[in-house]
Structures are given as C-alpha cells and as structure tokens.
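Hey,
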Amino acid sequence: MNENLIDKESQVKINFLKTQAERAFYLDEFKENVALALTEEQLRSGIVYPEIIERIKQSDVAYIKMKREIELKFLKPYIVEAERINVRYTLVDSLNLLGNIALVIVVKDAFDTNEREILIKDIREKFQEVGLYPEYVKYFGKKICEKHYSLVEEKLPGYEKKFKKLTIFNQLFGESCPICKIEKEKNKRW
C-alpha cells in the first residue's frame, strides 16, 4: 500500500515537472493552448509566414507571445497585423525559457489533443516537399515568369502573393525570371 502511494506521489511530481518544462518551451504557455509556433531561426530569416498571419485573424485567438530577444524588425509584421485586428500581443523575456521557440499563438480554449503540428515547417522545406526549388524563397518580392508564378499558385496557394508577375514589358527591357536561371543552371549540371 505504501509503495503504491509513493509511486503515485512520484508520478505526480514527474508530471508536474514535465508540464513546467513544456511551459518553458512554449514561452510559458501550456502546449494545449498553443495553436502555432515559429522558431528563432524562422523569425530571423525575415520571411513572413502567411500561416501565422491567417491564424491571427481567427476568432479563437487569445493573444500572441514573442521572445523579446528577437529584433523588433523581425517581429514587426506580426505586431502590425495583431494591432490591425485588435489581438493582444506580449513580448516575453525570462531566464527559465527552454528551446528555440520565439513566437506562439495562444487560443482561448485548449485543444483536446497534443497530437498536432504546432511548429510551422520551414518555408524552404515546404517548397522542396511540393517539388519546387527552395531558392524560390530568396526571391520573395521579386518578379517571376508566368510559368513559375502559376506553379507556386498551384502547389502552395497563398505564397504566389509573395511574388510579382514578370510582364512582357519587363522582359523587353531585359528583366528575366530568376527561377528560370536556376533551372537552366541545374539542367546544365546534368
């Protein structure tokens, strides 16, 4: 009987410590309250993740937490969006934080399961998984040809907005698609 009681007490302590460690990993939030997260590397890449922007707009979002040690220029797009739609945000600095999570979206009601993807995949991986060159990411905000614009639109809807379309006039004045150049270089190697 006493052994069983000790085991239960130890188990409660272990569960408590696991929960505290989990909270420290997700910027002092319980995992079941976190909808999405980004790492420090993802934020510092300068790429604005549309998944985060779209998730912020949903009505079940309570607030956003971000690590204070990340430069403001990388947090600004998310802060601007949060302010635009009146979602509260907090900058967190704490000595007990673990891991490299730098932004979390916290929801009002906890999720029933922890078996979901919280951390957003790196954007380069996403492009590679759907058969596109990871180099696309380098050219966000740049002009690409109709062919590559359509490929992005088809395989990764929403990300086509990160590019501009290269027009016939642009081509007449000497501009070319950077993705076409990459394609030509890769085909020469083979």
